Amino acid sequence: MTDATRRTIRTGLQTLLGLLAALPLLVDTAGVPHALPGVAVALTVAGAVTRVMALPVVEQLLPAWLRTPPPKEDTDQ
Fold first, then answer.
1. Which one of 16, 30, 31, 45 is most buried, counting C-beta atoms within 10 A?
2. Within a domain: residue 49?
């Protein structure tokens, strides 16, 4: 699996978790001004999950196919 595919899957998962956390607020709202707290919650949760998934401890807990590969060392010097 390519690195781009892994990143896409991880971003999709993070966004889904954010939307699921905000879903009750979004369902209860009828207008745009009332939806603002729901959107804020979704963005906050998605950002927090993204940040947590970048931690080395969490990286080791992920299945191997979702882990980001170590950076390649530049040997052309």
1. 45
2. yes
- Give the Cα-Cα-Cα angle 7, 41, 31 (nearest 5 degrees): 120
Which has the closest alpha carbon to 24: 8, 9, 45, 4? 45
pLDDT tens, 9-53? 888 888 888 877 876 776 666 565 666 677 778 778 888 888 887
Question: What's the chain's length in residues?
Answer: 77
Interhelix angle 32-53/3-28, nearest 10 degrees: 150
**Gap between the Cα atoms of 4 and 12, Å rounded:** 12
Overall number of domains in the chain: 1
